[in-house]
Amino acid sequence: MRIIFKLYLFSFLSVASLFAQPKKYNIHTIAFYNFENLFDTINDPSTNDDEWTPAGRQHWTKEKYEQKLKNLSRVISEIGTPENSNAPTLIGCSEVENRGVIEDLIKQEKLSGYDYGIIHFDSPDQRGIDVALLYQKKYFRPTTFSNIPLLIYKNKPVAEEVQNEDLGDVEIKIDNNRIFTRDQLLVSGFLENEEIHIIINHWPSRSGGEKASSPYREEAGKLNRRIIDSLQQINPQAKVITMGDLNDGPFNKSIKIALGAKAKKSKTLEFETFNPFEEMAEKGMGTLAFRDSWDIFDQIIMTQSFIQPDFSSYKFWKAGIFNRPYLIQTSGKYKGYPLRNTLTEAGFSDHFPVYIYLVKEF
Questions:
Q1: DSSP reduced 3-state for 184
Q2: Contact 288, 350 (CB under 8 A)
Q3: In whole angstroms, what is the distance from residue 131 CA to residue 76 CA?
Q4: For a Cys staple, 7 with which of 25, 206, 312, 358, CB 3.0–4.6 Å?
């Protein structure tokens, strides 16, 4: 028998009233988590993974790898609780070396009962790290999926492109050195009986400095926007979620201008996108820290079709950063930071995961 997890709430569609009647909602947690270097211990000659081997700089052993898997599985199993007792229905993930490490992850004791499926492609990233989507098979049925390359080049980051409608073959009119980075993973399918589209991202890093590398992430935002536009041309009410480690905060150009994400539901017009994490950033919250400064690089952004005030189909309820105490460094130079790997032991990640709830009245 299929189990539907139910959320009992007073109506949040209007101002609370003493006489409001309780309503019942189905709920799904949608999450994203940067796993921070989820590598196996095997040296792959085709990628730059030498440091993540027993003989490498990280002294990455089987014991550390297995502990890392156990740590990540605990986090995934708890994201979204206590509002939703079920683990996330959909989990976008980044910094995975290959499909094998994801298969090892979903076999962990805390995750094996959820029967997660995997959608993954090897990307051209020189470090050999990819993005992927995990989904609970009993709730989500994928219909199509593709990896869409982000074509960016040294010296002239804004390429002149001719691109067809399905975002397939791209003709490059300039001759520059390509920067090989992660593809953007597009997955379409049915959440129960409702079609939704998910884009999983890990945008180019800030290597070389934030300002110098910003044009690369702006190109990533533009590619996101083109993907969303193509889906909305087919169905103006297409429900699209884009999530990932964007290596930029909600206020940066790649998100505010290239993707065009809005901070307020009331300001998000038809065909536009809403970013619930901008308000959190304004409050000083973060998913990662650098030099004691917090930012939200990990975000889940959605089309306006998810925030319309009608819960007869799945709509956005609220968002959060999953930063339980056990995920936080408690001592030393990095006290208060996410508890990441060290040379002596496997941690969790240098990023906190993020999540949203989709709910539907029944």
A1: strand
A2: yes
A3: 16
A4: 25
Cis upstream peptide for 22 (omega within 30°)? no
Short-list 192, 88, 197, 79, CA closest to 145: 197
In single-letter form, the type of residue at position 239 comes to K
pLDDT of residue 156: 60
C-beta neighbour count of 323 within 10 angstroms: 15
Report the C-alpha gap between 200 and 219 in whole angstroms. 15
Cα Dmax for the chain: 67
Residue 242: alpha-carbon gap to chain centroid: 7
Side chain identity at residue 270, one-letter code: E
DSSP string, 177-205: PEEP-PPEEEEEEEETTEEEEEEEEE---
Rounded Cα–Cα distance for residues 14 and 309 (Å): 9
pLDDT given at position 240: 98
Q: How many CB atoms lie within 10 A of CB 187?
A: 22
From CA 341, how far away is CA 36, in angstroms rounded?
8
Identify how many contiguous H helices and E strands the chain contains and give both numbers: 5, 20
**Does pTM top 0.85 for this prediction?**
yes
Helix or strand holding residue 139 (H, E):
none
Q: Does the pLDDT value for residue 169 go beyond 50?
A: no
Task: Give the residue among 142, 237, 252, 260 at the shortest CA–CA distance from 198.
Answer: 142
pLDDT in tens, 241-260: 999 999 999 999 999 999 99
Q: CA 279 → CA 274, 308, 350, distances in Å?
A: 11, 19, 22
Q: What is the pLDDT of residue 343?
A: 86
Give the integer Cα–Cα distance in Å for 323 and 271: 32
Tokens 């949203």 -> residue: 356
Q: Is 54 helix (H, G, I), strand (E, B) or coil?
A: coil
Burial class of residue 203 (count of CB atoms within 10 Å of its CB; 0-12, 13-18, 19+)? buried
295: its two tokens = 């930012």
How high is the pLDDT of residue 244?
98
Instruction: Count other Cβ atoms within 10 Å, centred on residue 215.
Output: 17
DSSP character at residue 170: E
DSSP annotation of 159 reads -
| Helices 99-106 and 62-78, packing angle to 10 deg | 60
Give the integer Cα–Cα distance in Å for 69 and 60: 13
